[in-house]
Amino acid sequence: MQEINKKIGQRIREAREAKGLTQKQLGEYLGYSSMGISYFEQGVREMKISDIQRLASYFGKEPSYFLSAGLTVFRAEKTSPDKGIVKSLDDFDKFLLERRKKSEQ
Fold this sequence. Notes:
Helix content: over 70%
Radius of gyration: 14 Å
Structural class: mainly alpha
Number of helices: 7
Number of strands: 0
Mean pLDDT: 81
């Protein structure tokens, strides 16, 4: 799980830096301190799904970008992809997108 948290943190940092934001600015948006954002980016602290959804919306990305689904699928693809895992991840992405659309209405 820690490997996934680190990957999520890396994605948060990449998106934040691409937008030219400081940890403090992103923290103000999410309601966390700059230290809290630092912990997320280092993979020390787990993010809530609701925060990941807010990040995705804010940065104009799909939630799966932050959830690091590719990490799991990449490993599965090296052997034989488990179609159940791939479908589950796709279904989860669709669920999050629909939920975001409803909340924006």
